[in-house]
Amino acid sequence: MIDSGTIFMFFTTSVLLALSPGPDNLFVMSQAAQHGRKAGLLVTLGLCTGLLFHTSAVTFGLAALFQASAAAFAVLKFTGAVYLLFLAWKSYSAETMTGTNVVTDRQNLFALYCRGIIMNITNPKVSIFFLAFLPQFADHSRGSLTPQLLLLGGIFVIATIVVFGLISILAGVFGAHFRKSTFAQKVITRAAAAIFAGLALKLALTQR
């Protein structure tokens, strides 16, 4: 099994990576600002569920398919780009109603969780990143790589929950002040739409 020093180094690296500006933390920030802290936390859980998918993909070889097959890579990334454009349209066309933008009903909360999952698993670069990143901290001399890679993926998920959870709380507090104004709500929804559209373009232009 992996020694404690390696685990600490991996966790620290994972926290730093989660803090680095990227599609996922921007996604969490925009959703928490637009719909409240709970929305950001549920999107975070969705994204982390997606990370479990990528961990399994690396562990059992699926990520190698995305790296080797241009067609599989293209299908997945364009599916993700189309979904992000759909979210951009939804944000842009959302109505502004003072104080009512916070999501509370179960159906919409579950939709936010699913939104995080789709956002994450339709980005093949995450699997390829994990394929390059996780094995660096695994060691054949310590036994089977499968449990080591699964453990590392789990630690990465914990680091992501900690960092993205803090982002959700801060963005939710910030957004609460703006949701009191219809004009500020419109600014937030337009900004969210721009972020989604930008992420869609970035994903569509991504190369293996």
What does this protein look like?
With 208 residues, the chain is mostly helical. It has one domain (23-204). The chain has nine helices and no strands. It has helices at residues 4-19, 23-35, 37-59, 62-68, 70-92, 106-121, 124-133, 145-178, 182-204. It is globular and about 60 Å long.
List keywords for this structure.
0% strand; single chain; 208 residues; 79% helix; mainly alpha
Oligomer: single chain
How many helices in DSSP terms? 9
What does the average pLDDT come to? 79
Which class do the helix and strand fractions yield? mainly alpha
Principal-axes geometry comes out as globular
**Major sheet characteristics:** none
Measured between the Cα atoms of the first and last residue, the distance is: 32 Å
String of helices and strands: HHHHHHHHH
Number of strands: 0
Number of separate structural domains = 1
The poorly predicted ranges are: none
What is the percent of helical residues? over 70%
Radius of gyration: 18 Å
Strand fraction: under 5%
Question: What's the short story on this structure?
Answer:
The chain is mainly alpha-helical. The protein is built from nine helices and no strands.
Q: What layout of secondary structure does this protein have?
A:
Blueprint: H1 4-19, H2 23-35, H3 37-59, H4 62-68, H5 70-92, H6 106-121, H7 124-133, H8 145-178, H9 182-204
